[in-house]
């Protein structure tokens, strides 16, 4: 789920960069890129993963 959120944030940052507009001084392409990188890092660290589904599939074998 975090990887999908990161992809959406990167997409928004790219569209904003290509169109040349911002959403004020706080939400810029740099902010969205940083938020996307944070989501990717959390995804790679294993945050918000469904471990119960993995353990159920291991028990069936």
What are the SSEs and their pairings?
Layout: H1 2-19, H2 29-45, H3 51-60
Helix pairs in contact: 1-2
Give a structural overview.
The protein has helices at 2-19, 29-45, 51-60. It is mainly alpha-helical and 61 residues long. The chain has one domain. The chain is elongated, with a radius of gyration of 16 Å. The chain crosses the membrane at residues 30-49. Keywords: Membrane, Transmembrane, Transmembrane helix.
Which structural traits does this protein have?
61 residues, mainly alpha, 3 helices
Order of helices and strands: HHH
Please give the largest β-sheet: none
Helix content: over 70%
Low-confidence stretches: none
Q: Beta fraction of the residues?
A: under 5%
Query: Radius of gyration from the CA trace?
Result: 16 Å
């Amino acid at each position: 789920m975090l990887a999908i959120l990161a992809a959406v944030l990167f997409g928004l940052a790219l569209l904003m960069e290509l169109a040349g507009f911002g959403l004020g001084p706080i939400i810029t392409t740099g902010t969205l890129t940083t938020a996307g990188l944070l989501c990717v890092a959390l995804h790679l660290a294993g945050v918000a993963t469904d471990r119960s589904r993995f353990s159920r599939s291991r028990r069936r074998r």
